[in-house]
Description:
With 385 residues, the protein is α+β, with helices and mostly antiparallel strands. The protein has two domains: 3-152, 2,3-Dihydroxybiphenyl 1,2-Dioxygenase, domain 1 (Roll); 166-384, 2,3-Dihydroxybiphenyl 1,2-Dioxygenase, domain 1. The protein has helices at residues 19-30, 70-79, 93-102, 181-192, 239-247, 262-271, 281-293, 304-310, 355-368, 381-384; strands at residues 6-15, 33-38, 47-54, 57-64, 82-90, 106-116, 119-128, 132-138, 151-152, 166-175, 195-206, 211-218, 225-231, 251-259, 313-316, 321-326, 337-344. A hairpin with a 4-residue loop joins strand 11 and strand 12. The longest helix has 14 residues, at 355-368.
Amino acid sequence: MPNELIRNFDYVEMFVGSAKVTAYWFVKALGFEIIAYKGPENGSKESCSYYIQKNKIKFVLTSSLTPRQYEINSFVTKHGQGISRISFEVDDVELAFKQATDKKAVPVKFPDKSEDEFGVFEDASVGIFDDTELYFNNYDNYKGPFVPGFTAMNGIIKPNDKDTALEEIDHIVGNVRENEMERWANYFINSFNFEEIVSFGPGDIETQYTSLISKVVASKDRKIRIPINEPFDGIKKSQIDEYIEEYKGTGIQHVALMTNDIIQSISVLRENGVEFIDIPDSYYDMLKEKHDKLPKEKQMDESFDELKRLGILCDFETEGYLLQLFTKPIGDRPTLFFEIIQRKRGASGFGHGNFLALFQAMEKDQASRGDLVDRKNRSSLKDKS
Ligand code: FE2
């Protein structure tokens, strides 16, 4: 697929237990606005969806209204709340679908045109990971609030006054089983003409307990970036193992939301009650040492104390630096979470330098769930203590 066909990340759809309650959280906690709705009131008897937006970030939250609705019910029963679809906006849906499936992408939805008084919307989809779909969408001939079937909804639920300053999707990450990373990296490379831009092998990312390998595949122009993680044979169960066990399969681990002012974003998100992973003080001791050795022009613009107070992580690259922080899992299972990210002075990485600190912090949470287990005898470290 010529990558020029792909314009940008489009919406991300989640299948959830209650779209209404989840929409309330996205609005109040993350600052999204409800733009459009589909449900029994406008002809959708079996499912209900809220289309929400924050700047260029678009989400659809969907739940089932009847036991007969198989697709959503089976997904939620198996995976819990999770991302069922990600999508790209493309120039030509038919061509994108044809070129992907010619290269062995698994067809799920054949190119389709749907129509209402606002025009014609086109989409198609292929499978990725276990039960996730990748949609190709085109709205060039559609002027409605979202897609046919949705009607504009002028939010009764309004975001809080303070701006969370979240701008757009930076990257979307998948977790796969052992021995599957190569396969999925090649799937993206072959089916969508992506290329591998980063690769971490055995031993590169390793704590006392966790070990993983990771590759980043991206479109040629780097607008679409998909890191893929695979558990590696660590002594103990890794977060990736935990995700796969709890999600009952492979899928989307996190969506990274880009901000131009991470201090503002994290301050407001914390005020709104969003929970973030706890970063140990030792991380900032290490960071300060590293930072103070840098020449003045490479040091951070932000106040170090402010970063520490807000628990923000920083990864220095050869040129710029990356500021990031990860939420705790947003649902009831330890699966999907968000990343808040700011790229400074052209930073282009994904914070792999922070993985160790991140994993150590996450392992504390894993232990509290009795999930930090020895892979050989499956006994929980928490049970032992
Ligand atoms: Fe990330």
